[in-house]
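Write out the bound-state structure for guanosine-5'-monophosphate.
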Amino acid sequence: MKRGILMILSAPAGAGKDTVCEQLLKQVPDLRYSVSATTRPMRGYEIDGQSYFFLTREDFEAKINENGFLEHVEYANHLYGTPRVFVEEQLEKGISVILKIEVVGATQVKASGIDGVFVFLVPPNFSDLEARLRKRGSESESEIQERLRIARQELTNVTMYDYVVVNDDVEHAVEQMRSILMAEKRRRDKMLDLEIFKHREMN
Ligand code: 5GP
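---
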């Protein structure tokens, strides 16, 4: 059984990664979303167990101690982490998984040696990013400022990613993500189990 592809998607807040990820999941049937755990308060439109697993700090820390996270970080005063078991089970079943995580966590995933394809999504420019962040209206001014500060810092980490996708248009960005997934699959399996290769000479 071929392992699924692990795709790691990061983007500065306001780059539109929720929409891009949602559309990608609709279009790629063998791709699953890894629901993260967090200690941040739930936003009005969110659903526990779908948007995130909303945990108390105490429960989150207990899970850290059980080695229950593939990666975890403190971001804007809240804890976020990727539950390990789900990801490993899916990949083993040959199902691909997408993690929508920030750059420090992505760096941890990379350092852990897990094979993954790292994608960084960016808005076309900084003023676009600020406008999207404000439009969302879910954070206070000081939280917006904090997220903008983090975004500026995050943009400096782009070099550790395999691909950069510019979100100038959602459909276009999704199409590029699909191409990356497809190319990655071809790169991994090289289809060496095809009949044609059984006749190659070994030398
Ligand atoms: P938000 O609070 O806006 O939902 O998420 C804040 C940031 O945390 C976003 O960049 C989001 O992608 C990231 N994030 C969400 N879940 C995780 C996770 O499990 N691990 C890491 N490292 N970052 C996460």
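---
The chain has a mean pLDDT of 92.
The beta strands are 6-10, 31-33, 37-38, 53-54, 69-75, 78-83, 96-100, 117-122, 163-166.
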